[in-house]
Design brief:
Jelly Rolls, 205 residues, mainly beta, twelve-stranded antiparallel sheet
Length: 205
């Protein structure tokens, strides 16, 4: 795997850095469909360009993952010309950390980019002849994003599978606890100053 992180991006080795509040889905909610887009867990995933379909399958014999069944989003390549659509992720809220697992039936060269075509990672997804195991990919960025494009740069025959999506959204920045008290103090000082100036302007009786 060759990674080329953009400025301000950090490539994640595994999912251990995600907090307990991270959104996680294995697509079991939308199993088992064939579609051009799917909305689940605060994100809409669409197939853009090419002729590929998004399929949500409960894996059993398609890809061996021990003896366990595993639900996964399957990005299908066209059997005739090997073309495939890219995957576009549009999040309901800004995201600054994302991770997922992928496996392929053959080699694929992929590029991940966020808003404004900011390339975060470029790598080759390589077929694992020893058992086709899912491999984790992920990154964290300084600049939040709400769109992620997984673009296929070089097409080989086969399919690739995408599972266990997790991400963290960027919440509102909390106000310091003392800020309301500080603002009320300023308002009080302003009122006192106004009353003092008014009193000085009143004529003596």
């Amino acid at each position: 795997m060759v990674c080329s992180p953009a400025s301000g991006a950090t490539i994640l080795a595994d999912a251990s850095s995600f907090s307990s509040t991270a959104t996680v889905t294995n697509f079991s909610e939308v199993c088992c469909t064939i579609t051009s887009d799917v909305s689940v867990a605060g994100v809409t995933i669409s197939a853009v360009g090419g002729d590929g379909d998004i399929r949500i399958l409960r894996l059993k014999s398609e890809v061996r993952v021990g003896d366990q069944e595993q639900t996964a989003l399957v990005h299908t390549l066209n059997d005739e010309d090997f073309s495939a659509s890219d995957l576009l992720f549009v999040f309901d809220q800004p995201v600054n950390k994302i991770g997922f697992e992928m496996v392929t039936q053959d080699n694929l060269d992929l590029t991940l980019s966020t808003n404004d075509n900011n390339v975060v990672e470029a790598f080759t997804l390589t077929r694992n002849a020893g058992g086709e195991e899912f491999v984790f990919y992920g990154f964290e960025t300084v600049n939040p994003f709400d769109r992620l494009l997984i673009e296929i740069q070089d097409i080989h025959h086969g399919e690739w599978y995408f599972d266990n999506l997790r991400y963290e959204t960027v919440g509102a920045v909390p106000l310091p606890a003392a800020l309301p008290l500080f603002l009320s103090g300023l308002a009080g000082l302003g009122l006192m100053g106004w009353r003092s100036r008014r009193h000085k302007r009143e004529p003596l009786r």
